[in-house]
Amino acid sequence: MNAPPARLYRRKKPLAVAAVIVTLALVGLAIVMKDEPPALQLVVDDIRDGTGGTWGAVFPEGSAKAAGYLKRADSASAEDDVQLFSDAMNDGAYGLGGITVSVIATTTSRLAIIKNIRPVLVRKDVASGALFYTGTQGDIPRFIGFQLDALNPVAKVWNPKTRKLGDDFFHVQRLAILSTGDGETLVLNFQAEEAAYEFTVAIDYVVEGRRYTQYLLQDGKKKVFRATGPRCNKPGITRPYETLRWTDFELSPRAYKPVTAAAFCAGQR
To answer: Which terminus of the chain has a smaller tally of CB atoms within 10 A, N or C?
Structure first.
């Protein structure tokens, strides 16, 4: 098992975990396209769920892989949370309520100007399988948000405290990556409410007057992200999830505990 990735966020007192870990902290997903100039380097440094401060992962209903994570959750430690979430996301789980991706961008050119960031979507039914949830609290710096339910999700100014989206990001801000310094940290928040989504992330940029497009990659392939809307308190839904597990960092011994859908959706864990 790989060591947990470096954390950009200051972890404070976590809240709870239900059977799908959504705050993937993936580090070291190098992003360099073979057919593109190496002028812009992108590294996915951290992934969390749509709130930006928790790990909430939901498997599709009937997923055969969920059982293995239920066993792992029974013996999970505080240090295992990030790895469990990361593995679950790679095995087909969806980030609950959306997903938040932190990307470090650097350039070998004198200047690379990012002109657009866009998710390339595949829409699916909301995920309703096993849910793993770990709550955390803390201040998380991020600033670009997307509403995946929109007909054409565009980059918006995102307020991480209110989770609200504002003006079109690239209409009000200029995002230039200089060769000097440590680059820029781009925190991308993808929100989902009405459906589940599989998507890749394309970044359009300009170097010396020429336009290029680069994708976030993992192992040389386009990295696929997954996000799902919640099923709690939705009309006509009496069984939101197949099973739920949650955890609290104050539990001793530390383990994921079963919880009913009614209690989870009501916030009474």
So the answer is: N
pLDDT of residue 87: 85
Measured distance CA(128)–CA(202) in Å, rounded: 28
Quick check: 34 pLDDT over 60? Answer: no
Q: Which residues contact 124 (CB under 8 A, 6 or more apart)?
A: 195, 196, 197, 198
The reply to whether 133 falls in a domain is yes
Spatial distance between the Cα atoms of 131 and 120, rounded to a whole number of angstroms: 25
The bridge status of strand 156-159 relative to strand 217-218 is unpaired
Instruction: Please give the pLDDT value at position 155.
Output: 95
Model confidence at 30: pLDDT above 50: no
Coil/strand/helix, residue 206: strand
| Segment 105-128 mean pLDDT | 90
Give domain status of residue 268, yes or no: no
Question: How many structural domains is the chain composed of?
Answer: 1
Share of the chain above pLDDT 90, in %: 23
Pair type for strands 196-207 and 111-124: antiparallel
